[in-house]
């Protein structure tokens, strides 16, 4: 036993660090999907209870419930890791998508549809800088040819 400790003395100080970094390491047995699917609804119920505090017309405003949503996400991650599954996984994502459909189905992403300005505005916006560049280049060339007269 003592010879092993002498061969690898550098591993002993790293053991607490490795355990600290591991945190919620999944068990060696693998992913227990049945148990995960049984535990995730607890997270959804807790989120639903908290969302009752938020008025329905504010459900599309993330700043109104971001703390509850973060707690919900952390809960799903912890419950998934406890049963030895990685997070996110297709089953957990499916559960989370179900919660999204329940609470956020009426929320739409407002995207601005950009369009070109009318020609009456676009042509001057393009032509003026081009004409100014040509004019300034002409002035520089003209002044450079007259350097012998500048004193």
From TrEMBL:
MF (Gene Ontology): adrenomedullin receptor activity; amylin receptor activity; coreceptor activity
GO biological process: adenylate cyclase-activating G protein-coupled receptor signaling pathway; adrenomedullin receptor signaling pathway; amylin receptor 3 signaling pathway; calcium ion transport; cellular response to estradiol stimulus; cellular response to hormone stimulus; G protein-coupled receptor signaling pathway involved in heart process; intracellular protein transport
Spans traversing the lipid bilayer: 121-142
Record keywords: Cell membrane, Disulfide bond, Glycoprotein, Membrane, Receptor, Signal, Transmembrane, Transmembrane helix, Transport
Entry membrane topology: Single-pass type I membrane protein
Similarity comment: family membership: Belongs to the RAMP family.
Subcellular location: Cell membrane
Record's GO cellular component terms: adrenomedullin receptor complex; amylin receptor complex 3; cell surface; lysosome
InterPro entries, A to Z: RAMP, RAMP_sf
Region forming the signal peptide: 1-30
Protein name as annotated: Receptor activity-modifying protein 3
